[in-house]
Structures are given as C-alpha cells and as structure tokens.
TrEMBL record:
HAMAP family: Smc_prok. The gene is smc. It comes from Anaerorhabdus furcosa. This is Chromosome partition protein Smc. Belongs to the SMC family. ATP binds at residues 32-39. Its main location: cytoplasm. Keywords: ATP-binding, Coiled coil, Cytoplasm, DNA-binding, Nucleotide-binding.
C-alpha cells in the first residue's frame, strides 16, 4: 500500500498512541458522530504540511494537541507519523520507504518536521510530495463539504480542481509568485529610476564642477611650477646680490683702509711741515736781526764815507793838478759805482712793488670771495640749527596739531586699553620712512586700543572734556589684508618692486595685526615709473608707494611732489638724524671758510708788509739815486775839464777805498738778507698753504670716509634684507612645496621662467574666469557617478529580469493553457461514461464558459440524466448534485490517478442505490489508488476490504479497532439499514 501506516499520539482526540496499518486498497473508517474519524483525515493533512488552522477546524495550531477530557489531563505534544511505500517513486525521493513526522508542542514554538527521523524544514516536506497528487488542493482528500461545494460552486471557482488535476496549479502558484516578483521588480525599477533621475540631475552639474575643479587644479599646478621657478630664480638672484654686496663691502673696506692711511700720512707730513714753518719763523727772525746789524753797519760806513769824501774834496781843492786829476778820477769811479749800485737797488724795489701789488690785488679778491663764502656757510648753519630746533620741538610734542590724539596720549595712563598711536608704534626701516609715511597717510594718527570697549571709553573721555576728536583702532576688529599669491608673483617679477610696506616696518608682536591690516596690501617700488608699470600690471587694484613718498592710489590716481620743510611723524626722526649730520658737516664747512678767510688775511697782511717795505725802500732810494747821479755827473764834468781828452790813467786810479768797498759789501749783504727773508717767507707761505691743502684733503677724506661708512651700513642693511628675503624664500620652498633649494633647482627649467609674468597674468585671469570652485566636486562626482552607473546597471538588470519574468509568465501561460485544455478534454471524454455508469444512462459534459480565455474560464457541467432533458448542475437535487460531482471526481481519477484518496463521507447525500453504485464504482480504481473511506453508509462499508471502527470508550479519547462489517454498521449510528 502507498500509505502503509499512520501513528498518532496526542493529536486531537487521539490522546493515546494509535497505530493504523493499511494493508488494503480500500479501507473503511466507521464510527458514531464525534468519535474522531475526521481527526484521522486531519492528522494526515497535518503531517503533509497543512498550515491553515481553519482547514484543521481550529482557531490556533495548538488546538490540534489533545486538550484533555473529564478524566484525562491535556497533553503537551501532538505527534503524527505517516509511513509511505515509495517503491513506485510517487514521492520525490529515491528511498523505498519514507516516514514523515510532524510534532507540535503546546508552547507553540517548537514545531518540528522529520523525514525518516531527521529534522527537516516544512519546505522539504512540501518538495517531497510535490506532484505526487497529495497536495492540499488535490483530489487526495475529499470531504462531503468538498462535494457539495463543487456542485454549488460558481463555474469560475470550480476550475481549481481541473487545474490541480492538470498539474497547472504549481505553474499557477509559480505564476503568482512571478507576478508578485514582477510587481516587486517594477516597483524596484520605478524606485531605482526615480533615484536615477535624481542622480542624473546631480551628475551633469557635478561633472561640470569636477571638470572645472580639474582645470583649476591644472592651472594651479602650473602656477605653482612657475612660482617655484620664480622662487628659485629669486634665490639665485638674491645669492648673486649677496655676493655682490660682499664684494662691494670688501672694496669699501679696502678703500676705507686706504683713506685712513692717507689721513695718517697727511697728518704726519703736516706735523713735520708745521715744525718746518716754525723753524723758518725762527730763521726769519734771525735774519731780521742780522739785517738790523747790517743796516747799522751801513749807517756807520756811510758816515765814515762822508768824512772820507770831505777829505778828498780838500785834496781836489788844494792838491796838484795831477793829484787833483787822480783824486777826481777816483771820486768819479766811486760815484759811478755808487750810482749804479743805488740805481740797481731802486729798480729792484720798483719790480718788487709791482709784483707785490699784483699779488696783493689777487689775494684781496680771494679774501673777498672767502669772506662771502664764510657768510653763506654761517647763514646755512643758522638755518639748519633753526630747523633742528623745530624738529626737536615736534619730537618733544608730536601731537600738538592733533588735539584729540594729544589729549588721549597725555591721559593714556588713566585710560584703560589705550596702547599707542600708530606713528609711534611703527618703526620704518631706514630709507623707507617716506614710503611708509605715505602708505599710512592719515592712519598714522589713529590710536590703537585693546578692544572696542577701550575705544568707546576714550571717545567718551574726549566728549566729556571736549578736547578734540580722534580715530581708534580696536585690535580685536582688525583683519589682515593681503595681496593674492598670483599678484605677488607678478610683483616679484616686476622691475623696481621692493616688497609690501609691512616688510619695511618693525613693531612689537602685539601690533602685528595693525601692520597686517594697513600695510600688507600696500606695495613699495623704487621709482614712480616702476610703480606705474606695476600698477598697470595689477590693474590698479593696489595702493603703491615709492621711496620718495609718491603714491599711486587704487584706481590709478597719483599723489606726489614735495613741499618745503614738510615733515611727518614717521620721517621726523630720519630728518633729525640727517639734520644732525648736516649741521656737523656745516660746522666743518664754516670752520674751513673761516680758516680760508684768516689765511688769506694773513697772506694779505704779509704782502702789504712786503709792499710797504719795498715802497719805503724805493722812496728812500729815489733821492739817493738822484743825488748819486748828480754827484757822478758833476765829477765827470769836473774831470773832463781837467783832462778834456780823457786819460787812460783813470783806470789805474785807486779809488777802491776800503770804506766804499765795505759799504758796497754791506749793501749787498743787506740785499742778500732781505732776499733770503723774502724767499724764506715765501717758502713758509708755501708750506702753510701745503698744510692747509692737506688739512682740507684730510677733511675731504674724512667726509669720504663717512660716506663710505654710510654706504657700508646701507649695504649691510641691504644684505640683511636680502638674507631675510632669501631665508623667507627658502622657508616658502620648504613649507609650501616641501622642496629644498637644491632639489627645486633640478626641477625647474627655462620654460618655467620664460614669459613667467605674462603666463601668470594669463593663468590668473583664466582662474578668475573659472569662478567659484568646489574642490570636492571630482570626488563627489566620482561617488555620485559610481552610484549612478551602479543604479543604471541595476535598472538594466531589473528590466532584463522583468523581461525574463514576463517571458517566463508567457511560457507558463502557454503550458498552463495546453495542459489545462488537454486535461479538460481528457476528463470530458471520461465524464460521459462515468455518468452513464453511475446514473444508469443519460449523458454529461463539461463546458468551458469562455473557451477563448482558457486561463481564466469557468467550468460548467451540462448533464442529462436518463429520461430528463439537459440541465445545468445547479438545477438538480442535493443527492443528484453530489452524484454528478462524484462522476466528475471519478472521471478525473481516471485521467489523473492519485496514489492515495481519502473520502470523508462524500456519499452522505446519496440514496442507498446510488451509494451502492458509488461504492462498487470506486473499486474500479483500487489498482492505482489506495482509498481510505470515512463513512456511515453500510453500502460503502460493504465494498471496503477492511473496516476500522473509531470509538470513544473513555469519554473524550478516541481509539481504533478493526471491526467486522456487522459491528461497523452497528457503530454507524444505525442510520442506515444494511442491505442483506
Ligand atoms: N484537541 C482535542 N482534544 C480532545 N478532543 C478533541 C480535540 N479536538 C477535537 N476533539 C474531539 O473530536 C471529536 C470530533 O471528532 P470528529 O470530527 O473526527 O468526529 P467524527 O467521528 O468525524 O464525527 P461525525 O461522524 O459527526 O463527522 C469531538 O468530540 C471533539 O471534542
């Protein structure tokens, strides 16, 4: 037998273990109402996986567990086992015997299925019986209710049994599943497409933004390359400039040493010269003493000579003619010598007068010039001293013209948080005073406060005291203003650019925000021309100042020029320094001018003295010469009278009187001393001039030394500035680009530097044109695009799976139509014979309500019992309806036999004759089908090969026992008479 055994324990009314062995093809189960017959059917249905509590006639699943009775306690577990013979492989297993068990515990949770005592899932049980004909809608379990509902059912509801028979229901189930899946797939497609279109909206702008960001990065990288190249180039230049500065410093140092040596040499020489002048002075004095002696000697000799002359005159008057002539000749010769000597000295005096006059007039002119120069220099010195006094006052009282500022500064000690005036806080680098002064402009009088409250307090103070107005800068509100990196590159590549103004200002750390707010975006150039060039490259976006204090304002307007004696608080210190220096120089200039005047005066006096001496000498000599000439001519006449033809004897005359000779000697000695004095004086003058010249040279060299030292300082400052700049550039290479100078050098090539300025401008304007950049865009785009592509693929997959489902549904529809139609036709073929057999004639047929819609059409039954006209099943009596339904059931069994069929009082509504016909007909199927028939009808019982009686001997607990026909009939409530 297919179902070999049923074992039950604790299932519904079967409290105790009951084992039913099936050994016959047709087994009858009999018993009185409520004894538990149908519970056996329920047990079989339950094991085969029934999940519907309603089908099991309960409200919860635990209702199947024996609930107890008057004298039995409830049990905790229900267990039913079915044992099948599977040698015909009706079940989906290769085993010959299969034991299926289901257990349920009262806690309702520990439900179990077992196949051959192994725990399995419900699905395994369902798979086991799939297509075996034991399904819950199959014909394997037919109750009286099924029979009547089949007959009463609408044609539409009736097709289920044909579908089951045709094996269509599994396709139908699959189709339902596929449709549900299709629905889910469509929903997924819709949902995914919604997300997709949302993503699509994001993807395009993100793609554009990402492209923009990439472009930006590219250009930025190029800018960086250029910047690195410019930095490297800058470093090269700075290194070169530092080298040059060192060389220049070395040259200046050598020059300084040379200057110092020259000064030393000059000073030593001057010392010697001065000593020499001193010696000359002494010599001259000595000579003058000698001169006096000679002059005295001359006077004595002259007196003696006069005496001698008198003696000679006497000889001439009283002597012989010979003596006379001789004497006269001697006198004549003497007079000639005297005359010529005096004449020559007189002439010399005249020459000296002329020479000295000329020299004197030159010196006088020089003296006038030097005096004028001296006056000028002194005037200049006075002007400088006046200016210095003014500047000193300004330094002492810098805010005299700014009432409010002065008042706040004077009272700073009592005002909380007043930190100082910008002009005092900022220290411009030497040489940059004018530039910083104009860069700050009026801001230099602004007062820095710690915060806004301090500023408010100070303003209230000014109001209260009505002591003026002032502008305040609270440190807490200051924002740094910079020039962009790209513009910086442009600047650094522009000729004459020196830096931003803040580079040239020192201040305490706490005031750095002030510097950054006002000077970090002001550019400094050396000249106005270079400033204009830079301004145009930067499109007039920045304020530019020059070292001279000219300003190119934002927008391009320019301010410049110079007003007399103008000064600002930032330049005043520089001017004071400069003026102190100028005063020092001016004092030296005055001293020099004074010295020149004095020197010239001394020279003039000396010349005047010489001239005077010469004039006196000349005046003294003039009458002497006349007298000597007259004397000489008279003696000549006298002698010619004595010797009219002349006498050669004259030559022999001994007129060389000793006195005369001495006198002549004395005169020539006097002249010699005078000449020596003159020449020594001249030499002394030359020496003094030489000393003066050298002193002047020393002063000039000292001036040059000062200039050299100033330029040394300037070069050192410049060198320090270059070294700071170099340090900054190296630092920037390291921090911004993580590069050493040596490595960066290997990275750059000429192409980076070529046209750097133009390219930077070009790149900068291109970057500007790019507008706002979302640097996260590439990543966001990648993420969104990845999601987009993923979802797009998913949609495609979903569409393809939807198409597959649709085609599977189509295929299933096709199979279902085919199988349904074939099964329907086959059953229809059998129905007529079955009908005739059970009704004893007539005819019957199945009719499709809508043959064009095989998948949904209802099934009607047209029957014509013998002697009756064709009628629809609904018009027949209850018994007839049952029998017609049974005809259909048997027709189906003929076409589609099932291994097990349980009939639960299906023939209840039939009359006895029909019951017997039914029971006999049933036996036709016992070859292929095992029947378990629950019945009250003796007619049926008679046809069963074995009968089991169900009893409830103990109240509420069912029991089974094999019974004989007679007992069975007795047990069946005696409702039917047994036909003997
Ligand atoms: N969980 C349960 N515990 C104890 N008894 C139960 C349980 N469930 C059902 N029963 C009993 O089973 C009996 C019904 O059994 P069943 O319907 O099989 O009777 P039957 O023999 O088919 O009757 P009829 O001939 O009237 O159809 C009832 O008496 C009911 O009290």
């Amino acid at each position: 037998m297919f179902l070999k055994r049923v074992e039950m324990q604790g299932f519904k009314s079967f409290a105790d273990k009951v084992v039913i062995n099936f050994e016959h093809s047709v087994t009858g189960v009999v018993g009185p109402n409520g004894c538990g017959k149908s519970n056996i059917t329920d047990a079989i249905r339950w094991v085969l996986g029934e999940q519907s509590v309603k089908s099991l006639r309960g409200t919860t699943m635990t209702d199947v567990i024996f609930a107890g009775s008057a004298d039995r306690k409830m049990v905790g577990m229900a267990e039913v086992t079915l044992v099948f013979d599977n040698t015909k492989r009706s079940l989906n297993s290769e085993l010959d015997e299969i034991e299926v068990t289901r257990r349920l515990y009262r806690n309702g949770q520990d439900a179990e299925y077992l196949i051959n005592r192994n725990n399995v899932r419900l699905k395994d049980v369902v798979d086991l019986i799939l297509d075996s004909g034991l399904g819950k809608d199959s014909l394997s379990m037919i109750s009286q209710g099924n029979i009547s509902s089949f007959a009463e059912a609408k044609p539409q509801d009736r097709r289920a049994i044909f579908e089951e028979a045709a094996g269509v229901s599994k396709y139908k189930k699959r189709k339902m599943e596929s449709l549900a899946k299709l629905e889910r797939t469509k929903e997924n497609i819709d949902r995914t497409q919604d997300i997709l279109s949302e993503l699509e909206r994001q993807v395009s702008p993100l793609k554009r933004a990402a492209k923009k960001a990439e472009l930006y990065k590219e250009k930025k990288t190029r800018l960086e390359e250029i910047e690195i190249a410019v930095l490297v180039e800058d470093i090269n230049t700075i290194n070169q400039q530092i080298e040059d500065a060192k060389k220049t410093l070395f040259n200046i140092e050598s020059q300084t040493t040379m200057f110092q040596t020259t000064i030393q040499v000059h000073e030593t020489q001057n010392l010697e010269s001065k000593k020499e002048v001193n010696d000359l002075e002494k010599e001259i004095n000595k000579l003058q003493e000698n001169l006096m002696k000679v002059v005295n000697e001359i006077q004595i000799l002259e007196t003696r000579k006069i005496e001698l002359d008198e003696k000679r005159k006497y000889v001439v008057e009283v002597g012989t003619s010979e003596e006379k002539a001789k004497q006269l000749q001697s006198l004549l010769e003497e007079a000639r010598v005297e005359y010529e000597d005096r004449k020559s000295r007189y002439d010399q005096c005249q020459i000296n007068i002329e020479l000295l006059s000329e020299q004197l007039s030159q010196v006088a002119m020089q003296y006038a010039e030097f005096s004028q120069k001296n006056n000028e220099e002194n005037g200049m010195l006075r002007r400088l001293q006046n200016r210095k006094e003014f500047l000193d006052n300004l330094l002492k009282d810098p805010f005299n013209s700014q009432g409010g500022v002065k008042s706040v500064v004077d009272n700073a000690a009592s005002l909380h948080g007043v930190l100082g005036v910008i002009a005092q806080i900022m220290q411009p680098t030497e040489g940059y005073e004018e530039a910083i002064s104009v860069a700050l402009g009026g801001t230099m009088y602004n007062i820095v406060t710690s915060d806004e409250e301090a500023a408010r307090n100070a303003i209230n103070f000014l109001k209260k005291n009505q002591s003026g107005r002032a502008t305040f800068l609270p440190l807490t509100v200051l924002q740094p203003r910079n020039i962009s990196r790209e513009n910086q590159i442009v600047c650094e590549n522009t000729k004459g650019y020196l830096g931003v103004a803040s580079d040239f200002v020192q201040c305490e750390n706490r005031f750095i925000p002030v510097k950054e707010a006002f000077l970090q975006n002001v550019l400094v150039t050396d000249t106005l021309e270079n400033g204009n060039n830079l301004a145009s490259l930067l499109k007039y976006n920045y304020k530019i100042v020059t070292l001279d204090g000219d300003v190119i304002h934002k927008g391009g307007s320019m301010t410049g020029g110079k007003s007399k004696n103008s000064t600002s608080l930032l330049t005043v210190k520089k001017e004071v320094d400069e003026i102190n220096q100028s005063i020092e120089l001016q004092i030296a200039a005055c001293e020099l001018a004074e010295k020149n005047v004095q020197e010239t005066q001394r020279k003039r006096e000396e010349l005047e003295r010489g001239l005077m001496e010469s004039r006196i000498g000349s005046a003294q000599l003039e009458p002497v010469v006349d007298a000597k000439r007259a004397k000489y001519e008279k003696l000549k006449n006298d002698y010619e009278l004595i010797r009219p033809n002349g006498d050669d004897g004259l030559g022999d005359a001994n007129f060389a009187d000793e006195v005369v000779l001495k006198l002549n000697e004395a005169y020539s000695g006097r002249d010699e001393i005078t000449n020596s004095i003159r020449s020594k004086r001249e030499y002394r003058m030359k020496m003094s001039q030489d000393v003066d010249r050298k002193e002047q040279q020393i002063r000039q060299i000292r001036k040059d030394l000062e200039t050299a030292s100033a330029s040394q300082n300037a070069i050192r400052i410049d060198q320090a500035r270059l070294e700071t700049k170099l340090e900054n550039n190296l630092q920037r290479l390291a921090t911004e680009y993580q590069l050493t100078y040596e490595f960066a050098k290997t990275k750059v090539n000429d192409s980076h530097i070529e046209n750097a300025k133009e390219e930077v401008l070009q790149l900068r304007s291109e970057i500007e044109r790019l507008g706002n950049i979302n640097m996260n865009a590439p990543q966001e785009f990648e993420e969104v695009n990845e999601r987009y592509e993923f979802l797009d693929k998913q949609v495609k997959d979903l569409i393809s799976s939807r198409d597959k489902i649709l085609s599977a549904i189509d295929e299933m529809d096709h199979v279902m139509k085919k199988q349904f139609k074939e099964m329907f036709d086959a059953i229809n073929n059998e129905l007529n014979d079955t009908f005739r057999a059970l009704f004893g004639g007539g005819k019957a047929k199945l009719v499709l309500e809508d043959p064009s819609d095989i998948l949904n059409t209802g099934v009607d039954i047209d029957v014509q019992p013998p002697g009756k006209s064709v009628q629809n099943i609904r018009l027949f009596s209850g018994g007839e309806k049952s029998l017609i339904a049974i005809c259909v059931l048997f027709s189906i069994l003929k076409v589609r036999p099932v291994p097990l069929c349980i009939f639960d009082e299906v023939e209840a509504a039939l009359d006895q004759g029909n019951v017997e016909r039914f029971a006999r007909y049933l036996k036709n199927f016992r070859e292929d089908t095992q029947f378990i028939v629950v019945t009250h009808r003796p007619g049926t019982m008679q046809q069963c090969e074995v009968l089991y009686g169900v009893t409830m001997q103990k109240q509420g607990v069912s029991q089974m026992l094999r019974v004989e026909l007679k007992d069975a009939i007795d047990m069946a409530d005696g409702q039917e008479e047994v036909k003997s």
